[in-house]
């Protein structure tokens, strides 16, 4: 890990040799996220698991949207609908002890790490049963048990923090890896590059996942980024990167396994640009006038991550319509129960105002 | 005409140095750029170059002399045909308190007949007043004290805590191989290795975030900022991530981290390198803010800070780094965070200060005593959480209070103390509480303007006389 500069420089050249193939594979990926690069085929069990997990996130988010409309959720609320394949595919590449950190669009990440929908929903409604006792809200939730380190509201801050989590892994030589998620918007923050530099210099076990959903709030990537291929953003630090069809959970998992293995083996950081799309506005109050309805519709009908799995399951007769409906019904029940809990759980006790300021 | 070589000032705050070694001997020919001697400062060993061609005519300060004041003539260089006897031989002097009004000084050649230029003293604190030796509650009677500089005390505190706990590490710019920009981390790399003493790139925002992330994972980083002026680039991570996450996580994720480094004005480094951030950080719930004045407090408080499971802003002062004061010789000396101390007892007026502000307060107290005004000087030591009780107890006795800080007055720490006294000691006050602060300007470079911008001992005396109506 943190070794003398000379040593790093030597391993540097070793580190860059491996990802060449990954890089050229990346170039083959369709930038409009329409193409399907070579992917690991999923088994029936994997397809069904991915289907269930992605659907859980979608139904959770739909329910959150409803509760927001009812005034039960306040403040900012950023939904993850459309991007589900990214976190579900990446999580499948992790092992116990690995860490996950992300920005403000974090509900999907939390569910993917196995956090309880009730606790997440109750945090959204600001109740005492929420993961942060109602004191963090949508953007600030944590579960050290599940290796989830937030939930950060300052765009880009999680990139330095995630690099620090990876620093701790390297310091302890525990073989863990930190997945550090951020968006195409955060990718233009200065501290991202400060972190890239240190991560490569010290060979930290961190995978940077840039969720490129094409819009930083209302600003299209092409209007904000001189280099729109985010997989190249680590080039000047010798960090390998690849573009991944982030709408195909199989492609995500395959890339995730490559990247995580690379980082875990001590070769340093790795960048995965996930080409993805959010169907909803940036937040609940965003009418998303900066893009056409047709653009959204095209994504929904042609590239929806859940529909892709569903179609394969049906095509291969790994599940019937009825079975899939039954899964959906089960998930709806879970989310209804979470919403019910989050609506009836009491608000934090007033005494909580002054707790958790110092330890 | 013989040219005198003067003891050079090698840093903005250097007042004296040791003449470690002569590399040329009397009679040697030297040309401009030749290294003629090595000077040891408390931070580094530096080379002295000849600035003129000629012959090293006379060595005025022998090798091995300690504490040679800046600008003391150390040798004479003779031009062709000149004789060593042409040069007067000023007596080399160890650093002493120089006249306060030293003439402006350039290391220019001095005529042989001219007396040696008086040594310039860069700061007003060449001989820092020491608080009276009041017993610390945690120091057993009969404990031996050793004189240490604050620099050594801080280094010892880190080394002791790193020996004690493998999760403690130090990171920052130049902390390892260079041994610290201000030599606070001297020797740590040698003892603990590159895994635990980590040189960072110049990337304050980034490495502050990396430190906070490592703390989230349970490590206990000491993040050194070369100065807190540069930490402004990192203040988002300090406040938004380090200070708030325990609360935002409902108590799940804590952040045991120390951000430390010199804060405030050093000497002649102008506005961007001279800001006092005490009030800024003291504003923020979730942080603790510590600013010691003595070496003993620096050591004891830094050890406590490293063990504290919360984010600590540890504000040092460059001018105080080289000052020595007694440190108790104990295996494990800690000072509790959040406790002020009475540095000088008195009955007529309370002076509240911390860090270098104590220097003004203690000097003023000495002068006030000559006027028959006995000032009680409180060294706040911790700014947040503030030990308001100690201030209140003192003010209830004296009925008068003056605060002293180098920072600006608006929303300053003094303003907070004034408000606390208004709320909690209004009926005990016999005069309005006054603040002595830095002037409301960016720090100027020019020596005279800089002096005007900083508080002075006289300012404190004037304020104390005003509130005691004497």
Automatic annotation (TrEMBL), chain A:
Residues 53-350 form the Dehydrogenase E1 component domain. One of its GO terms (molecular function) is pyruvate dehydrogenase (acetyl-transferring) activity. Keywords: Oxidoreductase, Pyruvate, Thiamine pyrophosphate. Its EC number is 1.2.4.1. Heterodimer of an alpha and a beta chain. The pyruvate dehydrogenase complex catalyzes the overall conversion of pyruvate to acetyl-CoA and CO(2). It contains multiple copies of three enzymatic components: pyruvate dehydrogenase (E1), dihydrolipoamide acetyltransferase (E2) and lipoamide dehydrogenase (E3). NCBIfam families: PDH_E1_alph_y. This is Pyruvate dehydrogenase E1 component subunit alpha.
